[in-house]
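Exam revision sheet. Question 4 asks you to relate a sequence to its structure. Input first:
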Amino acid sequence: MAKHIGVKIPEDLMNTILKGKTVAILATFSEKGIPHTTPIQCMYPKGDESILISIHKDHTGYHNMAWQKKVMISFLDANNVAYGVLGRAGVVRAPSLIHPLMNIARIDVIDIKSDRSVISHVDSGVRWSYTSPEAEELNTALMNELKELSKTL
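Answer key, structure tokens:
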């Protein structure tokens, strides 16, 4: 049973996001009510009540998010980090200063629930690696853009 914990990002989830090595799953709905999930690895907290993400402007998840506004992000990571974050999304920069195909969105937390189970423990989250040096350079630059925006928005 999910336990609602409020609107502030808990310390263990904050640390997971700041590490920059996990994949969160962004859930959205189309105008026809069709669910869609999008893996997100480029994210950064803005304070303890918002998360900034970088997402491709042509991705279905981005179009759904821009239309519907309400989103859910699922986080599963080592040390039993298991949370669902309900939020309201808004585009804060389109396009990104780093790449013309990427946009930056802010997700303001509406509610956070703990998805921890009494019968199982999350030992590891989804991990990712770069496909090329250019991909690493792009991701690093996008993360730096999110960090800077987190200070100025």
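Marking note for examiners. Residues 133-152 form the longest helix (20 residues).
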